[in-house]
Amino acid sequence: MKGLESIDLRRATNILFRSNRELALKILKIIELTWAQLKKSGYEHLRIMNFCGTHEWTTTRYGLRSLLPEGIELLAGPGCPVCITPSHYVEAAIKLSLEGVRVYTYGDAYKLPSVKKINGVKSLDEAKASGGDVVVVYSLLDAIRDVVKNRVESTFLAIGFETTYPAYALAILKEETPENLSYIVAGRLTPPAAEYAVERVGGVDGVIAPGHVSTITGGEVWINLAEKYSIPTVVSGFEPIDVLLSIAEILKQKSRGEARVVIEYARAVTWSGNVNAKKAINEVFEVHDAAWRGIGIIPKSGYKLREEYRRFDAFDRYGFREPTRDEWCYDLLPGCRCGEVIIGKIKPSECSLFMKKCTPDSPYGPCMVSSEGTCRIHALHTNVNNIDEIRKIKWIENSNHQ
Amino acid sequence: MCWGVYGKVLEVSEKYVKVDFGGVVREVLSSLDDISPGDYVVVHAGLIISKLSREEFLESFKYIREIAEKLVEDGELSREELEEMNRIISKWLEE
Amino acid sequence: MEKITLAHGAGGREMNNLLEELIFKKLPTFMKKVEGGLGIDFPDDAAAIPTSDGKYIVVTVDAYTVNPIFFPGGDIGILAASGTVNDVLMLGGIPIAALDTVIVEEGFEIETLRKILDSMFNTFSKCGVKLIGGDFKVMPRGQLDKILISTMGIGVAEKLIVDKNLRPGDKIIVSGYIAEHGASIYAAQRGLTPEFSELRSDVKPLVDLMIPLIEKYGDSIHSASDPTRGGLSMTLNHWAKSSNTLIIIEEEKIPIRESVASYCEILGLDPLTLASEGVAVLGVEGEKADEILEDVHSLGYTEAQIIGEVREKERKELSLVVMKTSIGGYRIIEPPVGEIVPRIC
User: Fold this and answer.
1) Cβ-Cβ contacts under 8 Å, B22 against chain C
2) pLDDT averaged over chain C?
3) Which end of chain B has the least Cβ crowding within 10 Å, N or C?
4) What is the pLDDT of residues C40-61, one digit of tens each?
């Protein structure tokens, strides 16, 4: 038997956490038994919210909803940085791209629609089709290398949460950011939004907290959810077995009347997080009251560059500015209810535009754009999200083996 | 919200870290200083955000074992099934 | 005014919708096919015209642009020849001849053009396909990105293999590792090339696989496609829709090379949506499936697998492709939407 010391952890994760059907069945059995106990004590429904689009992705990608017992509902919270990125950043990026500034973006925000059209254009992919200079990159490093090579005046649509922000901070601190590159600083912090959502939605029985955000912040930032709101909170990894284990733990805490923060994703997350990265973010950015798309201003929930690094700020450089609390206006198109979908208050199907005016081919609201946007996920996997339909599929499967 | 991929560190230079993602090698940035060849890391958007811990690798199963123990105590789950689960968890180590 | 975006050419939903609006809805039914043949009334890999002796002439046309024109595992010449030959094969035709149009940009190196054409001729020659005609044009600098090759393929079929003939009980065979071409081109095109990778295009003509299969199992192969643009996901969805069935596949059975899976994972891409240029997907009679798979293996396609099967659909909404995932859950495989871009979240 090989010891843990010599094992390939990448492969091990695959075998143990990703494709282990046998283990999934055992955990599901434990979930079912615990759920049965909870039901005896009066529970009919259990609403578990995730705050990470990648958890939502894992849930749909591996068909987890089809495996869970009836009554356990998995809700998607405000965990998609694309969906919550306010329209004014996108509008600024479009405008710059059409004026000859090269705009780098992650693929995620490439099709994100703005509320206002800029020269008839309402997303970066349309801007590109109209001659705008837009380049899709996978990482900040790709963009920096491109700037150095092509010496173009450029800006980076810097969306993201705590996980994505150390890269920007380090690129500035280590003087890797070329002077002709600026950032559209659209970064947001997750814990304030998580608290905002559980407060507004109510009835959240458990939280699957974002594992990769927590590698930076540490598990400690979720303490409020457990203590102030009495919600069992599990910092979870992103493999299907991780998510099942987290659900089991939430059920357990519920059945014992506990509410604690537990780190299921212990192989990557510690209680205090990535000290280096936090320090870098702190040196370069300060926290301000920031707008969330379709939601409004959430106190202390956004990053902005500190005075000494303001020269890298695209808004300063090109004369844009952040809206004040009074100026901020609802940045969703008329009828769009993404703001409520994002915080898990309504399901996509409760929005009258869903699959009518707003489809994956032609998104109207931001939640239909990102691969982890709740509306898009529901649109593409309608039947998967509908437990009855899944039972039908299971039935087909079973009948075939008889 | 944050896509992360595991890889094995091949080389560490002043600015970049070379990471093998299983037949695909890329240069990435690191937010951690104590990275050395042979480490397994979590990479998000071209940045190392965390190092995978061997010691904590099986910690994920600590809680499910507790739950299973309780279910055995309550007479809901048989001891054999609990042991079977433990076997499945340790079996992969032999592969 | 709405404009063409790259998504319109990505082979997904946007393209289908655009073609539906501009072509399929516009043409009256009688314009869509030659009587007794196959046309765009049921779009397939190729079209067919019946002959007086009860056979069919199979024809296909395709335009090839690829950037870079030389890529790991091939070049635009092999790509054009293989693509054309494969489209004829997938309708059950034995390819016999081809015509080409080559358009190059002013300033293009003649030596490079020679290399590309040589590799196209070699590929045709290996397949026993004659190049019987063509056209050559030059465009002023800047009006074309280097080179465009359009090829037309002609073949003869005793019996057509038409996607809509897929039926419940059939098994789905995939002849080799999927997504190889898509992943390697994506890496090269997007400048997201890793420092090192084993990514190579799988581009190749499938005559050595398909001709023996067509001859031996002509009646048992109900549908065949090469999953090019839009990948396996597009192909299977097209099949499910045109044959009015439910297709269930098993994630674990889908052949995929580790490096391709890793590359897709890094960028958050779905390998099911990436193109293959040297893979056949076959829908075959359930009882013959194992025997056919053995033959496929012995023809040198050792990675081939039975990845799933076709079911009667229970309800209208279920005319779908469903995948049993690695941990036993179910997921619906949708046809790809939009230009494929990497993601970080």
Assistant:
1) 258-259, 261-262
2) 92
3) C
4) 988 888 999 999 999 999 999 9
Distance from CA of C30 to the nearest CA of A (A): 30
C327 has a chain B CB within 8 A of its CB: no
C258 interfaces chain B, CB cutoff of 8 Å: yes
Q: What is the pLDDT of residue A394?
A: 57
C4/A129 CB distance under 8 A? yes
CB A94 within 8 A of CB A118: yes
CATH superfamily, domain C33-157, is PurM-like, N-terminal domain (3.30.1330.10)
pLDDT at C343: 77
The secondary structure element, H or E, covering residue A380 is helix A374-380
A82-190+273-318 topology per CATH = Rossmann fold (3.40.50)
Q: Do B53 and A266 touch (CB under 8 A)?
A: yes
Pairing mode, strands C171-174 and C281-284:
antiparallel
Residue type, A349: S
| Range scoring the smallest mean pLDDT among A249-258, B84-93, C102-111, C288-297 | B84-93
Average pLDDT, whole number, for chain A? 89
pLDDT per residue as tens digits for the range B15-28:
899 999 988 898 99
Q: Which two tokens stand for residue A156?
A: 């980076």
Most confident residue range from A43-52, A352-361, C12-21, C289-298: C289-298
Please report, as a single letter, which amino acid is at residue B27. Answer: E
C-alpha–C-alpha distance, residues C204 and C21, integer Å: 33
Q: Which of A240, A361, A393 sits opposite C322 (nearest CB)?
A: A393
* pLDDT at position A56: 86
Taking the domain C163-332, which CATH number applies?
3.90.650.10
- Residue whose C-alpha is closest to residue A125's, from C4, B1, C145, C19: C4
Cβ-nearest to C194 among B2, B5, B26 = B26
pTM, two decimal places: 0.90
Backbone phi, then psi, for A289, in 5-degree steps?
Answer: -70, 120
* Closest CB to A396 among C6, C311, C332: C311
Closest Cα to residue B43, out of A255, C268, A226?
C268
Angle formed at CA C84 by CA C83 and CA C86, multiple of 5 degrees: 65
Determine contact: B25 vs chain C, CB below 8 A. Answer: yes
Domain ranges for chain A, please list them: 82-190+273-318, 338-390
Q: Is the dihedral of CA C296, C300, C301, C303 positive or negative?
A: positive
* Domain residue spans of chain C: 33-157, 163-332
Strands (E), chain C: 47-50, 56-64, 70-71, 74-75, 94-105, 130-139, 147-157, 171-174, 196-197, 221-225, 246-250, 281-284, 305-311, 321-324, 330-333
The residue type of C74 is: G
Q: Is A104 helix (H, G, I), strand (E, B) or coil?
A: strand
Q: Which residues, in sequence order, are CB contacts of B95 under 8 Å at separation 6+?
A: A15
Per-residue confidence band for A387, with pLDDT thresholds at 50, 70 and 90: very low
Residues of A in contact with B79 (CB under 8 A): none
Contact A15 B92 (CB under 8 A): yes
Query: Where are any strands of DSSP class E within A216-363?
Result: 233-236, 261-263, 285-292, 296-305
pLDDT in tens, C223-257: 999 999 899 999 999 999 899 998 999 999 999 99
pLDDT at A333: 84
* 3-state class (DSSP) for residue A177: coil
Q: A116: which 2 tokens?
A: 């206002």
Residue A385 — very low, low, confident or very high, per pLDDT cuts 50/70/90?
A: very low
Please check whether residue C266 touches B, CB under 8 A. yes
Which ipTM value was assigned to this complex?
A: 0.96
Whole-number Å distance between alpha carbons of A11 and C249? 24
What are the CA-CA distances from residue C153 to residues A134, C95, C118, C135, C209 (Å)? 38, 7, 18, 15, 18
